[in-house]
Design a protein that fits this description.
Length: 332
């Protein structure tokens, strides 16, 4: 760890197959920012169990996510990568911070309201306290910067509030983190329902592009992407499907939205769909190949993850010690 560098922390739930939303909203930005920070990137498997998981699938998805981080260009020179459950301090700090979080503020979290309305009577308590675990993930490493898609902004605000509250009640133990919301790619939408966010748990698999999709499937999904009954390609509020395709292109190519929209003047929707599919395919194909290479050598992958979790635990333990001292738990 370089003493002069600030710390960046982020993670993805290995709940299902990762989507291009996770890739463009999170991983691609990690890669872009990593050299300027001391980075901690993990698969947040403790979060994943707020929804029911198949045990074998959970382990496979966790390895897949971590192999994808490496395949996408996460460099071990700058980043420590690991599975959240391998660093016990995450759960430990979450208990402490539960005692510094308010029912009222957790009840206002949009993601809880959305997910709990689907769960009905049997809402797991973990879904309610999920943002507290997320706060622990971040504060444990004294993160300065947390790159997230716009859906996670509210959780990050809660993290800041809890950190400020704890520091105020005790002493300045936690760094108060800043969010990094990408200017493009912060909210990739479902291809079939472009007013909804693309999610790993999207109800219709045709609406989400998974990082593991075959090139043929990617082509098919973009061809079927919902646009509208018009024919003019413009980047306007009333055309969420068109906007989404342009956003995807912008997030991958780095071109400006205005420039992309202009290049489609006088062209048909079909052109935009085919081009977007091709751009996504060229981006994902090499990532997929490298992911498979990492997964083929499980021994090496596990070695990387063990080294990652050892390093993370050392840093996390230093924070836990400070927290315990500040609270006044008797020294051992
Ligand atoms: N559609 C999206 N566009 C941009 N960014 C996105 N992220 C997720 N979906 C999009 C970003 O990916 C990171 C990890 O997300 P997560 O798995 O921890 O939680 P999530 O936001 O709940 O992701 P999903 O895909 O929607 O998962 P499920 O279906 O399991 O709930 C975050 O930085 C997030 O912003």
């Amino acid at each position: 760890m370089s003493a002069s560098k600030k710390t960046m922390v982020s993670g993805i739930q290995p709940t299902n197959k990762l989507t291009i939303g996770n890739y463009l909203g999170a991983i691609k930005n990690w890669v872009k920012l990593q050299s300027e920070y001391d980075c901690y990137f993990f698969a947040v498997d403790l979060h994943a169990i707020t929804a029911k998981q198949d045990p074998k699938q959970l382990a496979d998805n966790t390895f897949f996510a971590l192999a994808t981080y490496l395949a996408a260009g996460i460099d071990l020179k700058h980043a420590t990568i690991f599975a959240q459950s391998h660093v016990r301090q995450h759960a430990e700090l979450a208990w402490i911070l539960n005692c510094y979080s308010y029912m009222g503020e957790l009840g206002r979290m949009t993601q809880f309201k959305e997910k709990s309305s689907r769960a009905g009577e049997t809402i797991p308590v973990g879904l309610f306290t999920y943002p507290v675990l997320m706060a622990s993930d971040i504060l444990l490493y004294q993160a300065d910067l947390v790159p997230v898609g716009s859906d996670q902004k509210q959780h990050l605000e809660l993290t800041r509030d809890v950190a400020i509250r704890f520091n105020h009640n005790h002493s300045k133990v936690f760094t108060v983190p800043e969010p990094y919301i990408p200017t493009v790619g912060a909210r990739i939408m479902d291809l079939l329902e472009p007013t909804n966010k693309m999610s790993k748990s999207s109800p219709n698999e045709m609406g989400a592009v998974y990082l593991s999709d075959s090139m043929k499937d990617i082509e098919k999904k973009f061809k079927r992407a919902v646009t509208d009954s018009g024919s003019e390609i413009t980047y306007v509020e009333e055309k969420p499907g068109i906007r989404n395709l342009i956003d995807i292109q912008a997030a991958i190519t780095g071109r400006s939205i205005g420039d992309i929209a202009k290049s489609y003047e006088g062209k048909m929707y079909g052109h935009l769909k085919v081009d977007t599919a091709n751009i996504v395919i060229s981006e994902l194909q090499p990532v997929q190949e490298r992911t498979q290479r990492f997964l083929a050598d499980k021994g090496e992958l596990q070695r990387i993850l063990r080294a990652g979790s050892d390093k993370a635990a050392t840093r996390a333990e230093a924070t836990i010690r400070k927290v315990y001292d500040a609270i006044g738990f008797a020294p051992r």
